[in-house]
Amino acid sequence: MNWWKIVGGVLGGAVLLAAGLLIGHFAIPKNTEPIWAKEVSRDVDEEFIQEFMKEVDNKRIEDNLRRLTLKPHVATTAADEELVQVILSHWRDTNHGLDDAQEVRYDVLLSFPDEKIPNNVRVVNPEGSVTFTSRRAESEITQDQKDPDILQPFLAFAPNGTAKGKLVYANEGKVSDFQHLSEKINLTGTIAIVRYGGTGRVNKAINAAQYGVIGVIIYTDPKDINDGKSDPNQTYPYSWYMPPSGVERGSFKENFGDQLTPYYPAKNFTYRIKESEIKGLSPIPAQPIGFEDAKTLICNLQGPPAIDTWQGSLGCTYNLGPGFQPSSEFSSSDVEVNVYNKRTIKSSANVMGIIHGSVEPDRYVMYGNHRDSWVHGAIDPSSGTAVMMEITRVLGTKLKQGKWRPRRSIVFGSWGAEEFGLVGSTEFAEEYYSKLKDRTVAYINVDISVFANASLRAQGTAPAQGVIFTASKQVKTPQGTTVYENWKSKYNRTSPQYGLIPQIGTLGSGSDYAPFLHYLGITCMDIAYTYDRGVTSARIYPAYHTAFDTFDYASKFIDPGFTSHQMVGRTAGNVLLRLSDSLILPLGVRDYVETLEDYYNKAEQNFQANLNSKNISLAPLKSAVERYKKACETLEETIKNLKEMQEAPLKIRMINDQLMLLERAFINHLAFPDKLYYSHVIWASRSSGVATFPGLADTYLQATASNSQHDWDMVHHQLTVAIYAVESAASTLELVTKI
C-alpha cells in the first residue's frame, strides 16, 4: 500500500472542499458566519499546547527507551525489523494511534564486517611473528556487552585489504596535520594512527592517502572524550566516561544516501552505478580501536616528539615515528591493518506515520528520528525515538478522542540506516522530491535527544529561531526556571536586533535533516539537551557509537529520571504544534538578515582588496542584502496588518507560501557540481576558514593559492551564485504581484 497515495487522495479532496468553502464564503452575507469559516480561520490553541506539554510523561519515555534498547539493532538486522513492527504497532494503536502508518522500503548498499574473519590491527616483527593484536570486542562490563549480536568494531564502507608499514602518529588526520608531518617524515608506505575529531572520519583516510599513507588506524583519545581520564576506575561503570576498550564505530564515506543510486530512490526499477564508480570512499584500509590498544602503539613510537597541541592523555609522550623505539618490544616491527568488510544490498525500512490536517492537509510539518544504531544505541538514536513515541502517543490520544486535529498535516518518520550515511531519509527525500519541496513547511529532527542534562541545544536555519525561542520559554526545568533562560545562561550571543539571546547552532550534515536542508531547501531544526561546557570538554557523550551506549548508561549517567528527555519532548512538541496549527506560519524571515549581513561583512573584510584588483565587485551583493532586508520589513508589516484586519484566508495562505518557500530560494542545484546533494548557497559545506558564502570562500581560497585566471573566474562565478540566491530570496518575500 502506498501511503502517499492515501495522503494524496485525502489531501486532494480536502483541498477541493476547502477551496469550495472559501469561494462560497464570499457569497455569504457578512452578518452570517458558517461553521467552516471558524475552522478555516482558527489559530494555534495555547491551552491545548499547555495540555499537551503537561501530558508528556518522563516515565513513559523511560519505558520506551528500555524497550527500544533490549537488543543491538543495526540497520536491516532482525532486531531492527522488530523495532519496525514496534513503531508500526504504536502508530496504529486503536487508543493513541495516528491516521495512518506504513513501511516505505528501499534496497540499499550497506557494509558489514565479516563474522568469521575479524578486522584487526597487528604488530608484526621482522621474523613475521605477531606480537600484538587489537581487541576483537569491548570489555564485558555488564550483561549488555555479552550480547552475541554485537557487531565487532568496524568502519562501514572502509575498503577490504591488508596494509603493512611503519607506524606514524598524525594527530587528527587533517590536511594540515599531514602537511606538517610530511615536512619531518617520508610518509610513503606508512600506517598512520589518528585521533577522532578535527575532520570527518573518512576524510582522515582520504587526506592520508594523498601523502602516501597506505593504512589508517583511528582511536578516541581520553583528552578529547574523557576530560583526560583513562584509568578504568574513572570510567564506566563508575562514571559516564568511555572505558579503555571502547571503540567508536561509524560510516566511512563522504556522501549521504544510497551509494549506488545518487539522486534517485533505491527501488527495484532504479539504475545502479558500479561500485567502482562510487565517489567519496576511502582509497585505503582503515580500522578503529580503543584507546587501550592505541596506548600500546603510541607509547612505543620513536622519532621526534609531537608538538604540544598534538599531545593527548595516554600517559606518555606522543612521538611521531616512523616505527617503534629500539628499546621497545616492538623494535623494528611493522604495523598491519587488516580489513575484511563485506558490502551487500539490503532492504531497509522507513516507518512513516501521518495525522491529516483539517484545513491545509496539503502542507506538511515533518518530524523525524532514525531508528537504527551501531549497538544498543540508548542515546544515539533511541533517546530520540523514545521521545518521538511519547509525542505521538499524546497527540494520537487527543486525535482518537476527537479533541484535536492539526490545521496542517503532520508527517512522522522513523528513518532506517541513518548510521550508514543518512540512507533512509535521503531515499525518502529523493522518492518524494517534487511533493516535499512544494508542500513541506519545516522539518524537525530529534536524533540524540539528550547528550547530557545541562541545557537545551538547538540548531537550525534562521527562520526556525523564533519558534524555538517561543516554545522553550514555555517549558519549565526541574529547577523552576524556563528552558529558554537556562539555555541563555549557558550558550548565548548578542544579536544586533534582539540583544542577548540563546545561541542557535548551524546545521551541517550530521543527521537526517541534511537531505531536507541541503537538497530540498526546507527550513530545518535539530533539538536536544546537551552539556555544560564549564563542566566537560568532551567532544561528544563518551559512550558514543560504542557497546556501552546502553539503557544502564543512559539512566545512570546521562539523564537519571528522564526529565531532560521530557523537556526535549515538550519543547519539540511545542514547536511542532505551532508550525502545524498557527494561522500564520511562525517562521522569522528577518532572522536571515543577520546571517546575510555578517556573510557580506566577512567577505568585504577578507576578500575586498584582492577582488578589486581583479575587477570583481562586491557592490551587487551588498545591494542584494539590502533588498532582502527591505523585503523582510515590508512583509512583516503586511503580516501585522493581516492579523489586525483578519484578512481572507486565501491571502493568509499566500503569505504562508512566501514564508514556507523562502528557504527554497537559497537552493541552486548547479552551484556545487562536485558536491552531491549540497545545493544550499548559505549552508553548503565549506573548506575555507572564512565564515561567509561557502562557494565564494572556497573558490577565493583556491584562487589566492594558484592565482590562475580560471580560478578567479570561478570566484566571480560563485559571487554571482551568492548574489542570485539573495536576490531570489528577496523576490520570494516581495509582493506576489511585483515583478
TrEMBL record:
Q: Which GO terms describe its molecular function?
A: aminopeptidase activity; carboxypeptidase activity; metal ion binding; metallopeptidase activity
| Residues in PA domain copies | 164-251
Q: Does the keyword tRNA-binding apply?
A: no
According to its UniProt record, where is this protein located? Apical cell membrane
- Residue ranges of domain Peptidase M28 in the record: 350-555
Q: Which InterPro entries match?
A: PA_dom_sf, PA_domain, Peptidase_M28, Peptidase_M28B, TFR-like_dimer_dom, TFR-like_dimer_dom_sf
Q: Where is the signal peptide?
A: none
Task: Cite the Gene3D superfamilies for this sequence.
Answer: 3.50.30.30, Transferrin receptor-like, dimerisation domain, Zn peptidases
Tell me the function of this protein. Answer: Aminopeptidase with broad substrate specificity. Has lower activity with substrates that have Asp or Glu in the P2' position, or Pro in the P3' position. Lacks activity with substrates that have both Pro in the P3' position and Asp or Glu in the P2' position. Lacks carboxypeptidase activity. Lacks dipeptidyl-peptidase IV type activity.
Describe the family membership recorded for this protein in Swiss-Prot or TrEMBL: Belongs to the peptidase M28 family. M28B subfamily.
Name the record gives this protein: Aminopeptidase NAALADL1
